[in-house]
Fold each of these.
Amino acid sequence: MASSTHPNAACAACKFLRRKCTQGCVFSPYFPPEDPTKFVNVHKIFGASNVSKLLNEIAAHQREDAVNSLAYEAEARIKDPVYGCVGAITVLQRQVLQSQKELEATHADLIRFSSDLIH
Amino acid sequence: MASSTHPNAACAACKFLRRKCTQGCVFSPYFPPEDPTKFVNVHKIFGASNVSKLLNEIAAHQREDAVNSLAYEAEARIKDPVYGCVGAITVLQRQVLQSQKELEATHADLIRFSSDLIH
């Protein structure tokens, strides 16, 4: 956490937004100054104000997970402006279907072999 | 498309933002007035300004896909403010791993059976 490793340094969000990083800064624990890209991406895609609202609506112990999922989504959207991380969902859904098909075929082979063994 | 089905009606975005929906409106083809929630969700999570910037950066024929993926992500984030659609990715990744494990086990069974058949 930036607040513990850099007690006096402004977090990446406050640095980028050129404002004073106060003790209660909602971004500070999740946007360390060493990783400016994380904030730049999230700000570009969601906007600092939307992220701040979202963080204030969820429990403190879940905010780190929320920021990391937002950062993941933002990075995916920057890499693929059309599909973002929905592209990854489509690929995974296809993989699940493909695996299920293979599994069914292998099960069918297995049933065939075991019935051959019995007869 | 709203622009063709409702040539004179403001799109959901312009209605929500209380502005005149002009012929070149970047939102109009993708946010029909019949589906106000689509715009409300996307605006809440990404902000109209970010969406407009994003749409202007991509080719016109890909904008519909982009809007639909943004709407999907926004809905997922509203349903699950902590993980959003990254939650779906995690579930799918687990499903893929589980299927692969099952497939490996079934293949191993198959090899055992076929070697039993030979001997």
Amino acid sequence: MEISRDHPRYRSLVVRERMSELVRQGVVAPTGLIAHGRGEAFDYMLGERTTGTAANAEKTAAAWLLEARRPVITVNGNAAGLCADGLLSLARAVPARVEVNLFHRSPERVEKVVSYLESRGGKDVLGRVQSSRLEGIASDRAMCCTEGIYEADVVLIPLEDGDRAGALVKAGKTVLAIDLNPLSRTSLESHVTVVDELTRAVPSIERTVLELKDDAEERKRLIAEFDNAENLRLSREAMCLRLKVQGSGF
Amino acid sequence: MEISRDHPRYRSLVVRERMSELVRQGVVAPTGLIAHGRGEAFDYMLGERTTGTAANAEKTAAAWLLEARRPVITVNGNAAGLCADGLLSLARAVPARVEVNLFHRSPERVEKVVSYLESRGGKDVLGRVQSSRLEGIASDRAMCCTEGIYEADVVLIPLEDGDRAGALVKAGKTVLAIDLNPLSRTSLESHVTVVDELTRAVPSIERTVLELKDDAEERKRLIAEFDNAENLRLSREAMCLRLKVQGSGF
């Protein structure tokens, strides 16, 4: 479908069409489109920008990734569809392992997403073989890679389901989420929640990773001073502000 | 995919899977799933209930449909997927013509949606033949049925795009929208905006249609006293309230 560059929502429409195309290719699940829509709504209420509190959360997430001994970035269909290049670049910068982990898991879909990441330059992408099992979650959603999520101490989970976020926290890992919904279970349960749009958040985290590589003191300060409850409260407040101002149309 | 009845979001998940299935059947467009997700987010912030102001808007929409000489209800893929039976029942109650009108129009998709409505008992459903053109909108989105939208004086437009809502208003019609986003162009441009979830709104409008059939005085009162700007403001306020109260997770 041809989208007029004049359309006031041109960029959103282009992303939507691309996500639809990735559904046809089997990378994004159909219900992933629904999740994408939810994110669009929350992002609109954020004002489609990185808030001050999200910027701070991004720096803190970067600090955690650098402090980690075994950092892992999980990637599902939506994250791959929206931000494959950015996530792979961030993984190389830390460095961190990348593991493909899907809500609607099937060998075919895992293969599609892993291959897609490899086609974007991903090396040693985990996901095809998942031999370990997380506790406290339905078995079809519990499988993960031994040398990935299972052995990780810090996990970055973009666009993840609440059940899995909770299971990772219970398993004793430090959980860094990227989630536009400040009310979601994922947001509430994670240790650091970046309430920002994925393609804004990921490059921002990478920039700080590069800045803080040799600054252990600043990393520790960021981690010590971070308060996720306050971060979520400020994110919700930012959305409220937007609701009070009459929009020009979405 | 089997969804556990224990999952805290069981009902939402069932609807999402059904919408995904209707995409596979060609009734719902893939980008329609994204729109559905946006609605989910806004509905969550409404508290997934009919607010007082939405209830009043529903009554006012019913009054307008009864006052109309040529009322028409437009149906797109999402509206059909979510609420075909309810919309057909409302149309019979008024009575109003039903016209299928799609954002992603193709003869195949129009046929799918019209056939779907017919399979749910729809009679004289318009949409296969669109000979008239609305002004002020890109030509592929301007086509409509002569004896439907084109000649209508009052149009109920569930889940409609802002461009088309605006074109209908410019064409001099009274536009009644059902839209969960109180900031959208559709919401701002329509004369009556029902900020409520479709499957709650439609039966509510039908109930009032049956109640007000013989009460011209009450219909006129509702119409005279309705203030859409105030209605939208109260809807935004309801969402703000929800953001301020920490959710148990979405």
Amino acid sequence: MDFFYNYLLYLIPVFGLIGLLVMAVKSAWVTKQETGDANMNELAGYIADGAMAFLRAEWKILGYFVVIAGLLLAYSGTTIAGSSPVIAVSFLVGAFLSAFAGYLGMRIATKANVRTTQAARTSLAKALKVSFTGGTVMGLGVTGLAIIGLGSLFIVFYTIYVKNTGADVNHEAMAKALDVLAGFSLGAESIALFARVGGGIYTKAADVGADLVGKVEAGIPEDDVRNPATIADNVGDNVGDVAGMGADLFGSYVATMLATMVLGREIVSHDNFGGIAPVLLPMVIAGLGLIFSIVGASLVKIKNETDSVQKALNIGNWVSIVLTAIATFFAVRWILPEGNLYLIRDLNAEGVIKSGAVIFDKTGVFLSIVVGLIVGTLMSIITEYYTAMGKRPVLSIIRQSSTGHATNIIGGLSVGMESTVMPILVLAAGIYGSFHFAGLYGVAIAAAGMMATTAMQLAIDAFGPIADNAGGIAEMSQLPEEVRHRTDNLDAVGNTTAATGKGFAIASAALTSLALFAAFVGVAGIDHIDIYKADVLAGLFIGGMVPFIFSALAISAVGRAAMAMVEEVRRQFHEIPGIMEYKAKPEYEKCVAISTKASIREMIAPGLIALITPIIIGFAFGPEVLGGLLAGVTVSGVLMGIFQSNAGGAWDNAKKSFEKGVEINGQMYYKKSEPHKASVTGDTVGDPFKDTSGPSMNILIKLMSIVSLVIAPHLHKEVNHNKRIQKELHLRSMNMHVIKANKTL
Amino acid sequence: MDFFYNYLLYLIPVFGLIGLLVMAVKSAWVTKQETGDANMNELAGYIADGAMAFLRAEWKILGYFVVIAGLLLAYSGTTIAGSSPVIAVSFLVGAFLSAFAGYLGMRIATKANVRTTQAARTSLAKALKVSFTGGTVMGLGVTGLAIIGLGSLFIVFYTIYVKNTGADVNHEAMAKALDVLAGFSLGAESIALFARVGGGIYTKAADVGADLVGKVEAGIPEDDVRNPATIADNVGDNVGDVAGMGADLFGSYVATMLATMVLGREIVSHDNFGGIAPVLLPMVIAGLGLIFSIVGASLVKIKNETDSVQKALNIGNWVSIVLTAIATFFAVRWILPEGNLYLIRDLNAEGVIKSGAVIFDKTGVFLSIVVGLIVGTLMSIITEYYTAMGKRPVLSIIRQSSTGHATNIIGGLSVGMESTVMPILVLAAGIYGSFHFAGLYGVAIAAAGMMATTAMQLAIDAFGPIADNAGGIAEMSQLPEEVRHRTDNLDAVGNTTAATGKGFAIASAALTSLALFAAFVGVAGIDHIDIYKADVLAGLFIGGMVPFIFSALAISAVGRAAMAMVEEVRRQFHEIPGIMEYKAKPEYEKCVAISTKASIREMIAPGLIALITPIIIGFAFGPEVLGGLLAGVTVSGVLMGIFQSNAGGAWDNAKKSFEKGVEINGQMYYKKSEPHKASVTGDTVGDPFKDTSGPSMNILIKLMSIVSLVIAPHLHKEVNHNKRIQKELHLRSMNMHVIKANKTL
């Protein structure tokens, strides 16, 4: 049996390796596609250079941050008894791999965009193949690196702390290995926060800025080469929607596995053997999901111009989900021990299970995974309903656009608020259900199940901005209308997948945070978070407030950066003669520099709030108040995330509806009509909502949870942490057979 | 000593009686003021009739509701052991007095408005006197009725359940008396919810509707007699800002006293005597606050045209707060027992105080009251900063108006979100501080201290809409400019007091809800609410979502009702020839009917959500999950309340700033400029934010807490409630001297 688990242990990075190999093949295929004429290549070059310029500027700042944070971690690891400076290494690897995953995604996206444009000159099928293969490369890169990184580091720490010391795998030696491994997740999520917030500010500053002067003042269309901000706008799609989303999901993916592993260590069974299996299970599920994502992705193709792109994506998605679910069923049966399972924390000092705790078995674990898959699917469906054209919510905004800007805004805000109801009920039912089936381990493994097919989700998500960019290049290069028509077709599908992707991302962030929350409680050695206590309640209030100030900072940063962009574009129109007559080239790089500088500068304050708040509250008021803070952040962050993302998505599609014409009270309205102008206002307000502050909520709640998990062993250490260790040692010294599985207690 | 407390008991309604007597005198004084010419009287008559029409329509619906709810309460009181059908009586009295208080306020406001206009023809001093006396009548009516009602019912129930049975005053007999008394608060708050939501929808539907057609389409000024919706707009000021605010504070005032009384019953001291004093204290403080509000109100006056109205109000306000604080200091010293005090719930079954519980004394109780006063004051100051002209937040919105509607909206939303930070920190510190000084009783008594001068607060609040109405009548009657100038002066001060009043109202609602929350936990017999449990966490999520759907319903109701108003006004302009030439009178009553009907219809759904959600969750999942729900509602409701109220207030004053002209990037902008138009959009969005959904949050969180408190004895009764009673009986049977006051435990 030991041999088997050792074998399994080393198998995990192999899953990741397979992912990276397939990625390399697909990446090479994309690279050797035709890139079109010189003009297209020049524009694509600007975009790729701008994207790299942003990455370099971001890395420079993050380099300082990573070094300082790493030193602090190493220092606290050296000085605080029971901790280890090795966590700094773990942190650095996590940060590096997250940044590297972002780089890989960005590189392939900026290659695939122009190749998609060129492919669209031939057929829709070809264009889909190029753009979706680009997305697949991104998805495989992110998940492959995550599995290799986490799996390898776990092997190292397991060997050092557990195997070489001959310790019990459920022992506190394993707890230490996982405490150190948490640094990996902290590194990944820190980079993710800055990438998501910075990228979100970048893309919307460029977008809003380009529109305000280009479309409104100068009267030139979107993606017009004469607009100095147009390259920055296209760079923004890659920086925000590709790299930002990738970093977000890389972070969720890693954090979910980590939290489940921490809870898995605590599992004991009647024959005193939970062993390493529940710790490995989340990584195994992720590995299986990666393999079946490759299978699903290979099915995404169409033959004719009139075939449905959405349907092709759906088939691939469903195949990978269903195959992963089936494989997971067998993996769970095969790996997990037989009989009743408990978490150590649910036993009292005499080994009797506490009232309210759940006794579960391997079937329960599988059912929890199914709950996670259902939650993810429902969240996507609900998000689509609230943001799709032709459905009641968007239609209501269209109708309210007929009485002006203000009623359009009121309509969008009320749709966004209303759209929180169903997702929250689904989430609450998901928490309740997965807990019912397998306790807190169930909540965590539900998140892991949901995240299993992240590679496929990311492929679908990243394909959208690639197609969007391809359309931009087609427009700027003044290619024939049929090309733009094909890229528009892909882009429209991409808008839908972007919306559903956001629903998936927020659901995954919520479940991940809850898993981290549960892991935090265990590691901090507390066994309740009682909001009936005044200080915990105060923490809950402060936590609930954080997403509001975070959103305020993100939104106002976009406003300021867009203003700077407007001024630069106005300056160029003034000072460079001949731009309007295509005689002179605008200085694209100056606009790129403005967006880059602004986004890098503005991402710091919200980032620091997320990092420092839990540290201050945790050390000043202890782990229980910190738990209250986390609960507040999670609830309020999920609500604000759904509200802002869906309001923004609905406003966007309300505006887009006018392009084909809409009927209000028996009259048709098109572009440039008064209701359309009102809808443009809503769309502009919605831009930072849906692409900056809304999706940042995901990372905010995850990052604050991970920071708490990392500092958890050091909070009230003398009291709680040692108490936990002692209790566990005591329990292990007892014959576990004596545990009374008294369900009625 | 017994004699003394009996004396004190009967003194309480006397405080209320004094309030009502002074009210009658002041009301008579207002009534005998001059009412001006026939034209003014006619308009005032329309407004008064419209206001009464709304009240009658509202009462009709609420009549059904009160009868059904009362029967349900009586039925459950009869069938559930340990409860009493008498609670239905209590409920009916609360509902009736709340409605009656609203009627009194509305009647005096619709009398004072035209008399203020007439007084403004003489001097500013006279106009202030009339309008502020009107406000004082409202304030004294609300608080006087509350004290008489609550105090008298308490005497009745105390006599029936405690005195006549010879039971111990801390005994469960007293618990029963207070359980029944909770019905009074439920009745009051139910009416308050419908009044606040209905009134909020009414006033904004009329306001937005009147503006959209009148100002924008027909190009006639605000408050023009030719606009058919102008009377509805003026009625709205009374319905929303007077009756709605009055009902809100009536509810807070009663609920705070009740919650403190419930906690006060649990107080025991070393010599086994907490007695009735801690139960009576909140009503005594309210009585003292009422008396000193009369003193403070008598100081609000000016002599010359150039005297500062704001300063006069501030003097009156501060005098009443300081005098009340001093009197409270002596009352606390005199009434409360000496030595260490504890809550029964903080003792374990052996009489040993639990870890984390607070041992306090009478000085701590007084300090908690001071904390409450400080919190209320700070909240008002912060709210003023975020909504006042010339301060950074409003200036930032003005600047962002220069780039259009969208940036104005982004600016306002981000100001609103940012404005949650300081209030939440103050509130968290207030919870922490008042708990530190006197445990949960401290949190409750802090709220009671803050609410003590409600009469003065209401006088200041209600004076604003009276002055606003007076200005409207002056405009419609085409009185000389100096009259309008004087009412504008009063109205401007009224806008500031409206903003600070909202800060006060949300702070009071938050503290009141926490007090109710604490009372609920005790009555339900649970001793913790552990959000680490999956079901409680699910409850927290659902609770957090309720303010979002509530706001969505309220906001969209305003949108729909405003649309109906627009259509009616358009119809009248079309079908009644001669309106524009002053030859024909518009059918004002039809617009009044539309607003009335819409607001009555639209208030039902949000009202039922608030009433039914806690009942479903409580009975389906038990008291602890319900506790999670309440915490979620409170945190999210306070945040959404502050966000929406402040965003709305800031947008309003950004727009108003353009009337005097504003400088943006070295250029001056006035009314009708493009930035001004953008600011009008923000103001229109802000209208339902600040006057409908924002302030409704107060009542939402209070009402859900009260419903929970009322059903608390029936939740998991067999387990928790009986356990509580048994533990209390056991503790009382012990010699209380044995309590070990082990602070380090």
